[in-house]
Amino acid sequence: MSEFSHYEADQSALYSGEHHVDASSDASKAQVKKIWMITLYLTIITIVEVFIGLYVSGHMPKLYLNSGFIIMTMFKAYLIVKVFMHLGDEVKNMISTILIPLTLFFWFIIAFLADGAFWLWINHAFGIR
Amino acid sequence: MSSVAIDSKKKVWGGGQSPFNLSYGKIMMWYFLMSDAFTFGAFLISYGTTRFFSAIWPNANAVFKSFPFCGEANMPLMFVSLMTFILILSSVTMVLAVHAGHCRDKNGVIKWMIWTIIGGIAFLSCQAWEWTHLFAEGGWWGGFRNGVGAHHLAGFFKAGEAIDPIGSADAAHKFFNFFFTITGFHGAHVASGVVLNIIILLNTINGTYERRGHYEMVEKVGLYWHFVDLVWVFVFTCFYLL
């Protein structure tokens, strides 16, 4: 094998043979097709989001509207992380080290939004703003 | 890949292998992205909290309704949708570059990396236009510049909403501060991503990765680029949709 720089030396075995696929093979073509399919889904979801943002915005209660946006955005994020970033192909425990902190982060989001809403309510209740 | 995981379970602590069967560089890129996700998350959460405790807030459809070369046309959300589409497409070309790397197809990597870089530069140009346009309307960090945009104020809010002059000016100031800071941070990430992509492209052309025996560097820089795209998906949702 050709010479590797010092830090690469013992890691090359991890990936030199694993993914090697011939560019013109069926497996490769199937992967490329999958990539374009995911692109299509992402585009469709974005178009739907924009459509809703433009035409449905005034006519639906904010809670449903925003929940819908968040669900669609999370789904886009799921596709990008799983397929484009290949997290779906990694070792299960590795996936957990990424997903578990993000789940806790979700709690962080909810807590702070609730805090903001409470702040508004209590100031309104005491007639400060 | 899962079969390798089962084998390695037997000698996980025996040494001689890397955790999760990933190279050091890749794991570190993932964890760097996590830290960056917390940073952007903190920004977006503070935006959300501020918004939640504001009685009134500018309406995205009213603030972002221009399109380059269309003058006074009222096209809410169209330009930002185009920007989102451009960035998602550049992410797709990046995946295709990584795939070409797996196939050891050097010319494929070069082709798709070039498209990714073009997409990144296009996005930055669009963002620069958006900033320039808002600046021209009077927006900037700290609120309206010397009263330039103050007469636009009512136009930034939903039509028909009762405008309390002090509250709405205050909300507009906060909005601009958050908008320019968060999109600025994101734009800096896109710019650094473009620079990194150019470096990796040059390395690919020089045959560095052929000599090394693998294109993992393209994958690592691809992870960064996808992260940049992901952040934009969330920024787009928070600022323009919610």
Write a structural description.
By secondary structure, chain A is mostly helical. Chain A folds into 2 domains: 26-89; 91-129. Chain A has helices spanning 12-15, 26-56, 62-84, 92-125. In chain A, 11% of the residues are buried. Chain B has one domain (32-241): Four Helix Bundle (Hemerythrin (Met), subunit A) (Up-down Bundle). Chain B has 8 helices and no strands. Chain B has helices spanning 2-9, 24-52, 60-63, 78-102, 106-136, 165-206, 208-212, 216-241. In chain B, helix 4 runs antiparallel to helix 5 (106-136) and helix 4 (78-102) runs antiparallel to helix 8. The longest helix of chain B has 42 residues, at 165-206. The model of chain B has no long low-confidence stretch (mean pLDDT 87). The chains are: A mainly alpha (129), B mainly alpha (242). Chains A and B meet through helix 1, helix 2, helix 3 and helix 4 of A and helix 2, helix 4 and helix 8 of B.
Task: Please describe the topology of this protein.
The complex is a heterodimer of chains A (129) and B (242).
Chain A: H1 12-15, H2 26-56, H3 62-84, H4 92-125
Helix pairs in contact in A: 2-3
Chain B: H1 2-9, H2 24-52, H3 60-63, H4 78-102, H5 106-136, H6 165-206, H7 208-212, H8 216-241
